[in-house]
What we know:
The chain is of the alpha/beta class. The chain has a single domain, classed as 3-Layer(aba) Sandwich (Rossmann fold). It has 5 helices and 9 strands; from the N terminus they run βαβββββαβαβαβα. Strand 7, helix 3 and strand 8 form a beta-alpha-beta unit. It holds the Pfam family cpYpsA. This is Molybdenum cofactor carrier.
Amino acid sequence: MVSKIISGGQTGVDRAGLDAGLEVGIPIGGSCPRGCLAEDGVVPACYPLTELTHGGYPARTEQNVVDSKGTLVLNVGRLSGGTRATVDFAKKHGKPYLVVQLDQRPNVADAAAWIAEHGISTLNVAGPREKQAPRHLRRSPCLPAPALSIR
């Protein structure tokens, strides 16, 4: 059962994950890059993230993978950029991860089963920023409550 959702606070999937946690009452958090940087300026204060004192986006991405029990990657198309780096960091640190393709009718039950199978309590949610996948992020709920295996 997911007891905390973390992400880096970037626009798009990161914030969708944090918003899902807020919506269902799961604590949220995570690490953000120095300066609380995001595509739209700075990460909004409504997301209680820890600002890293070193590094930028890659350091943030790796820290969130390390701090989680597993990473749910919500993606559209080929993995690239920071989304690809997230998967690489999960492999590097031996952390479970699941890539869900939002443009291929994702199955909520599959995500819930993966969370249960790996006993994921702290879930890192990652994926493309808003500019890279806006149509898919607006059209479908990225993290419906059933996928979070809530109480």
